[in-house]
């Protein structure tokens, strides 16, 4: 065997022996009936219900989104034909950027091929093009934020997760004349807790720091017209740059930033992940635009999401299942063991037809493995009740640790 292939073969064998190999369940979401889907496993197809999708509001199946995408394909074809600065900018890209800027009350917005690319590409410029910039990053920030700050070359300080007091300590210890950038997420992607945005905005303002707020798990779901947590609290103007995604609440794919025109132009001009990649297909931009416009006018989906999340949180707490946070629509049940988490996920799927992916390292730290559940606007309250009963049964069979009813796990 080629020595390089042998090296990787050994590495992956060790990875699999440790129980860390990732499995990818092939599913086909059924248009018009989601969360219903068909799974393909061991050569057999079965109908399942999806409980871990980031399409929180079901906009990936919404008739207005599908119609817009089909219409765009008929008008413009499949792909964009190039990068944004070489023949790839379509009318829908421009309209969507204007819509997103208006949604967040910012001067301009800029589309990226993914949320990861938006964070990585934006932060590498915003932190990297300010001489001697000192970045302050939440300890639990997403990998895309970590990579963007690393690529920027800026010096970095890490503050404890959602700890505004620790952030203030670090800011106070820094040179008052040094440029500063504070980077955080509003809703944490794994735990589901919400950052103390008012306190962080106040601290950043007093120490003269620019702010970059990742709202990927909030846009569409929270705030006036779905503008996010900061807007919900009346704090959108306190954050210099808002970063969001089309891949979750808006049901499609792509990332974006919104902020002052000068900063957006800098990112547009220097971000490698923006410049050197093919633009989103026009149909994707058209679908994203339809989703944003619909959710700016409709509270129906947000109300359903909130009701289902509140119901699931309450039912899980009544059964003593350890939910990490009840602050958002993300419902993370702590299992704390990689093997046990995988078994719980498998049992839910094979016995009850409910698909929830086990989340292990590196998405969470070892020993903090979770079942990350996403009750969406597309679920019925009776579905939520049946799912909790199924999870409770599986947890009892596997002896998943419990906590006193209503308690928050340590």
UniProtKB/TrEMBL annotation:
GO terms for molecular function: 5-aminolevulinate synthase activity. Keywords: Acyltransferase, Heme biosynthesis, Pyridoxal phosphate, Transferase. Residues 50-391 form the Aminotransferase class I/classII large domain. It comes from the Bacteria. The keyword Calcium does not apply. It catalyses: succinyl-CoA + glycine + H(+) = 5-aminolevulinate + CO2 + CoA; 6-carboxyhexanoyl-[ACP] + L-alanine + H(+) = (8S)-8-amino-7-oxononanoate + holo-[ACP] + CO2. It holds the Pfam family Aminotran_1_2. It is an enzyme of class 2 (transferase). Pathway: Porphyrin-containing compound metabolism; protoporphyrin-IX biosynthesis; 5-aminolevulinate from glycine: step 1/1. Its EC number is 2.3.1.37, 2.3.1.47. Gene3D superfamilies: Aspartate Aminotransferase, domain 1, Type I PLP-dependent aspartate aminotransferase-like (Major domain). Its cofactor is pyridoxal 5'-phosphate. InterPro entries: 4pyrrol_synth_NH2levulA_synth, Aminotrans_II_pyridoxalP_BS, Aminotransferase_I/II_large, AON_synthase_class-II, PyrdxlP-dep_Trfase, PyrdxlP-dep_Trfase_major, PyrdxlP-dep_Trfase_small. NCBIfam families: 5aminolev_synth. Belongs to the class-II pyridoxal-phosphate-dependent aminotransferase family. PANTHER family: 2-AMINO-3-KETOBUTYRATE COENZYME A LIGASE, MITOCHONDRIAL, CLASS II AMINOTRANSFERASE/8-AMINO-7-OXONONANOATE SYNTHASE. This is 5-aminolevulinic acid synthase. The lineage of its organism: Bacteria, Bacillati, Actinomycetota, Actinomycetes, Kitasatosporales. The gene is hemA.
